[in-house]
Amino acid sequence: MNKNRLVWAARRGMLELDLLLGPFVDKHFDALGKDDKLRFEVLLEQEDQTLFEWFLKTQVPADPNMQRIVQIVRDSRVKLSAL
């Protein structure tokens, strides 16, 4: 998926997700390795409610690949907050 499509796919129906995923695409996506970029694309295919639960840690993804990319996105938010 090209960057423009990712920016569009990161725009969700929930403001909380928009505030997390949009800045991630803008500032961190390009630095990901090939496998993590693919994981992020799969992540964006998930339902908003599922993503919300994963990012709020009320649920954990069963798939280790999703666990990895969720943690990367969470960690990027901490890095943005520290700036």
Briefly, what is this?
This protein has 83 residues and is mostly helical. Helix content is 70%, strand content 0%.
Q: Which CATH architecture is right? A: Orthogonal Bundle
End-to-end separation: 29 Å
User: What is the CATH level 1 assignment?
Assistant: Mainly Alpha
What structural class do you assign from the helix and strand content? mainly alpha
Low-confidence stretches at least 5 residues in length (pLDDT < 50)?
Answer: none
How does this structure look, described?
Helix 3 packs across helix 5 (64-82). It is globular, with a radius of gyration of 12 Å. The chain contains five helices and no strands. Helix content is 70%, strand content 0%. With 83 residues, it is mostly helical. The termini are far apart. It has one domain (3-82): DNA polymerase, domain 1 (Orthogonal Bundle).
Helix-strand blueprint:
Layout: H1 3-10, H2 15-27, H3 34-43, H4 48-55, H5 64-82
Helix pairs in contact: 1-2, 2-5, 3-5
Descriptive keywords:
about 80 residues; mainly alpha; DNA polymerase, domain 1; 5 helices; about 0% strand
